[in-house]
Amino acid sequence: MKSLKRIVAMAAVAAGCLSLAASPVLAQGAPVRVGSTLALTGPLSATALVHKLVGEIYVEDLNSRGGLLGRKVEWIVKDDQSKPDVARTLYEQLVTSDKVDLLMGPYATGAILSAIGVAQRYNKMLIHHTMGVPSLAKYDMHFPAWSLGPDPGTTVPNTLFDALAASPKPPKTIAIVTSKFPSLHFLSLGAREVAKKRGLQEVLFLEWEFGNRDFGPIAARVKDAKPDLVFVGDIGLEGNMLLEAMKKLDYEPPLHFHLYPAPGPMATSPETKNALSVTIFEEHAPFTNDPVAAKFVKTYNERAKAAGFPYTKVEVQAAASFTAWQLLEASVVATKSLDDKKMADWLKANQVKTIQGTLRFDKGNNFGDDLMRIKQVQNGNWVTVWPKEWAAPGATLKQ
């Protein structure tokens, strides 16, 4: 036990603490080049821009603390246009033409799977932000910052239904409507099975193609079904478009849950009142009791406001991105090298303290614990409401 505590403590130091100390002088030598793609355009851009800002903040701070191995860090980011095939081509370029030292994963499951394929071909370690289907990530040197555990199709819906069971009026009927985007479809099918086992009556199940923008027919079907809970397998702005379509029909769902919404638009739009979603971190205690998290929150707030983001607080997407960079820094510092195999072996053998909690990679396909919590839009802000020990001070689930 003492040995394990020492490992965790060492990992916490390695993960970087956004030091307030004076900046050290960087050693001479070529920069450490980290290569990434992000969906800077296309349907996933509203969320990917959050990941871009977080990476810029982390790399700037990392360089102020001496970079990696005493060398400046240079982050090369390319636009994958929200297309997995484009991400695959760009990661090939990053490895072969740009000759980056390290890889950082893209946003969204489809692009991540493409990047994993390239990383495996060249024996590169890949740390990534938001992989949602653990069973598909079979490469031995991939590491998820998205801590949803090895069986999220079961554990994530159960967390949601536990939260709702503890509410004043638990739902009895459910409509499940979902994109066919890989992780969304996988989790929605999981929710369908879990709902049946927990005695919820399914009154509607609908699917749409990723990229769909006409949600009127889907909204009409949901309204006619009259569910107590609408489980929406959405990503980016899809959930906003569905709720806007419902509003045009003078319909407001009693309870509505969204898997991976664009954080700002979902929090700030009038029709998204009381929306539920998953989270690993929100900008309130007890998360912000961590001094690393508190400093990141302050910086992010300032930079997001300057960038004109509709929502300037740190939430699940920003936290996942920050965590990924913490994992990368921890593995380099601990091994004192840029050797992909050494870094991967270290991550599999150790735990790393991050702003969302302590991560480990010793379960199915390098996934560790499911740290997902449930959050809700309340007064234009995301606040955690379940489990109670992670809820914002005074926050409870509203209906």
Task: Report on the architecture of this protein.
The chain is α/β, with parallel strands linked by helices and 399 residues long. The chain has 2 domains: 234 residues, Rossmann fold, CATH 3.40.50; 149 residues, Response regulator (Rossmann fold, 3-Layer(aba) Sandwich), CATH 3.40.50. The chain is built from 12 helices and 14 strands. It has a 7-stranded mixed β-sheet with strand order 7-6-8-9-10-13-14, sandwiched between helices. Helix 2 crosses helix 10 and helix 11 crosses helix 12. The longest helix has 20 residues. The N terminus is likely disordered. This is ABC transporter substrate-binding protein. InterPro entries: BCAA_transport, Leu-bd, Leu_Ile_Val-bd, Peripla_BP_I. Belongs to the leucine-binding protein family.
